[in-house]
Amino acid sequence: MPKNKSIGKEKIFQAAIAIVQNEGIENLNARKLAQQLTCSTQPIYSEFKNMDELKSLLKIEAENTYRSCVEYYRESKKYSSYLSVGMGYIKFAKEYKGLFNYLYMQPQTSKELFFKDINENDIQQVLTNVYHLTDKQGTEYHLEMAIYTYGLACSINLGLVNINEDEVAKRLTNQFNALMSLFKTEEK
Asked: How far apart are alpha carbons 146 and 142 in whole angstroms?
């Protein structure tokens, strides 16, 4: 009769999330994970091929957590669809510091300025259909907003800025309106 597994894939995965949330992705390794689970590294490697496989799954979990933060605001209908994305991004940065850091505060291999959002297709549709920007304008507009939102999110994530949800919404709305005014002026 096979031995009953007390440390399965889900338990290992949850422990990995806890380490990333509390100590950062750079501190996630098999030894630290085994220590957290009070076991040897054997159960980890019997469930995951290697740590890269586990980190890939963590990245998917982080992206899904970000999506759920955006969905939280979209479902509340408190803010516009576009503002809900920014509010969700800030919520993710504030409440899931380690996962935010893993996705958005790691060195990039590319030398060019590049902000890729997992909600990019939805964002582009809103900017073109609701705000009547061309595809090119929508891309440029969102890059400008992304840079601003990223700076605010990082400041909140690092504890450099402590503002409530209403203040976040106000700042994002002010930036949105200022940029929209600029883009509409350039259009003429």
From this structure: 6
Contact partners, residue 127, CB within 8 Å, separation at least 6: 82, 133, 137, 138, 141, 142
> Among 59, 62, 92, 86, which residue's Cα sits nearest to residue 74?
86
**Per-residue model confidence as pLDDT tens digits over 15-63:** 999 999 999 999 999 999 999 999 999 999 999 999 999 999 999 999 9
Ramachandran area for residue 45 (φ above 0: left; ψ -120 to 50: alpha; else beta): alpha
CA gap 119, 67 in Å, rounded: 8
Q: Name the token pair of 37.
A: 């689970």
135 sits in which H/E element: helix 135-157
Greatest alpha-carbon pair distance for the chain in Å reads: 77
Tokens 């509010």 appear where? Answer: 87
What radius of gyration do the chain's Cα atoms show?
Answer: 20
DSSP tag of 4: P
Torsion-angle region of 116 (φ positive above 0: left; ψ -120 to 50: alpha; else: beta): beta
Residue carrying structure tokens 């996962």 = 99
- pTM here is 0.86
Structure token digits, residue 11: 């338990």
Do residues 92 and 66 touch, judged by C-beta distance below 8 A?
A: yes
pLDDT at 169: 97
